[in-house]
Amino acid sequence: MGNLFGIRRRAPVVTAQDRAILQLKQQRDKIKIYQKKTEADLEKNKDLALKLFQNGLKERALVVLRRKKNMEDILSRTDNQLATLEQLVTDIEYTQIEVSVVEGLKVGTEALKQLNSLMNIDDIQQMMEDNEEAAEKQREISDILQRTSERYDEDDLLKELEAYKKEQPTTDTSAKEEEAITVEEQAEEEEPTNVGELIEFSSGEQAIESDIQDLPDVPVTIPEKTMEPEKDSPKRQQNKTRQLELAE
């Protein structure tokens, strides 16, 4: 996949510890193979010693049995060697992990030092003090504003509203009375207040009546339409004449 995108993967670096672990594992595998072969030989020598003893070959049976015991001792030593090799491999692998952890801690510690160098303790302490002062000032301002808003008691304000509510009908009545008085005053101002105005008003009415009398009469109802006798057409007269002739 890396070659398809034009990126070559780096070959893993083989360290001396990796080579040592590989050699130890190869030696371990050889010991395991030798143990399997020895166990198979032990079983064969056991059967052979028993067979020789049954056939009366006691001396030869004892020789085979001694060889079997020697092989068992060697097998026991190989078990110890195998355990030592496996423990050594485990220790090396675990030590490699510890080295990786230490290297990671080293890199992390260096990065932390660099980050801490960007921050000055005195500046941070001053910033925190300034922040605390600003917060304290904000609390004082809020307290002052709160006291200003609470200068008027809420119960007193509610009582004042109730008083306004009780005064509301009286206020409406007085407003209606004032409106009625205003209408009457306007009517009195529109009426003629002296004799000259009365004479002028009456003369104006008489002039209007005389103008109405001079107008022509207008019919009140719709005139009835007079019905004239319908004249016969020439064709109808011919038909009537023919009927009279037939009748005679």
How large a portion of the residues is in β-strands, by DSSP E? under 5%
What is the element string, with H for helices and E for strands?
A: HHHHHH
Shape: elongated
Q: Helix- and strand-based class? A: mainly alpha
Overall number of strands? 0
The share of residues in helices is over 70%
Fourth-tier CATH superfamily name of the domain at 16-118 = ESAT-6-like
The total count of helices amounts to: 6
Q: What's the CATH class label of the domain at 16-118? A: Mainly Alpha
CATH topology of the domain at 16-118: Helix Hairpins
Radius of gyration: 69 Å
**Contiguous runs where pLDDT drops below 50 for at least 5 residues:** 192-196
Distance between the termini: 136 Å
How would you characterize the largest beta sheet?
A: none
CATH architecture of the domain at 16-118: Orthogonal Bundle
Quick check: average pLDDT? 74
Keywords:
248 residues, mainly alpha, Helix Hairpins, 6 helices, elongated
